[in-house]
Amino acid sequence: MDPQIEFRMEDDLVLQVTQIHEQVGKPFTTMLDIGAGSGILARAMAKNGTEMTTVELVPELVEYAKSCSPDSITIHCGDFYTIQLQQQFDVVSYMDGFGVGTDEEQLFLLKRIAGWMKEDGCALIDIYQPSYWRKVNGQEMQIDEAFRKYGYDEENERMLDTWWHNDHPEDAVTQSLRCYTVEEISKLCQKAGLKIVAIFPGGAMDYDEWNYSSLVSLNECLAYRIKVKK
Asked: Is residue 39 classed exposed, middle or buried when 0-12, 13-18 and 19+ CB atoms within 10 A define those classes?
């Protein structure tokens, strides 16, 4: 990896760790990160002294995480809809992925998150914001040899993120995530026995100026983070 790119990633991770501590708002020891991917956030949090546990479905990502993570991080390969975890945690996080399934599946997941939280614990969950994705519907971009197009499924209120290689457009892959207004996610959390105690707007891309702002208003951000408690 290019040292400059690696440096920028490390710099971004330091900011993420700082934000998580600020958003939790009090000292904590244990944290569960679900949909943890390669475990990069867990490693950054562990460096800061947090006892990390991760859950990731994709075996290749889990193997990579195990190959470059300290033994202090507990790494599980499994489906967070079915995996059985006996421990409860001060913090549960789900970054950049909530909304994969149906509303019923997300409600079930929120109930599981509630079960993994200590009574005085909290969860931090990233939620995709519908008005942003309506605005960027149809936006295309090129990244090296790959092409990317954003879409919005109005009927099902889902963002669509489609990637394809220039030479093989027939092999396009689309990720779809349910977007929620604050009112919608609040009602879903209530059904799961959770309440939103804080909302943290994220950033947004201005495609006219080709400029990314890391912090914009709640109505303009591509996603926002909710802090929930029992």
From this structure: buried
Residue type, 19: Q
What are the C-alpha distances in Å from 94 to residues 19, 91, 107, 225, 227? 14, 10, 14, 10, 11
Query: What is the rounded distance in angstroms from the CA atom of residue 76 to the CA atom of residue 229?
Result: 24
Token representation of residue 122: 């909290």
Greatest alpha-carbon pair distance for the chain in Å reads 53
d(CA 202, CA 209): 18
Q: pLDDT tens digits for 171-218?
A: 999 999 999 999 999 999 999 999 999 999 999 999 888 899 999 999
Number of domains in the chain: 1
Residue 194: exposure state from Cβ atoms within 10 A (0-12, 13-18, ≥19): buried
Backbone angles phi, psi at 152, to 5 degrees: -140, 120
Q: Nearest to residue 222, comparing CAs of 107, 126, 94?
A: 126
* 17 domain residue, yes or no: yes
Residue 173 within a domain: no
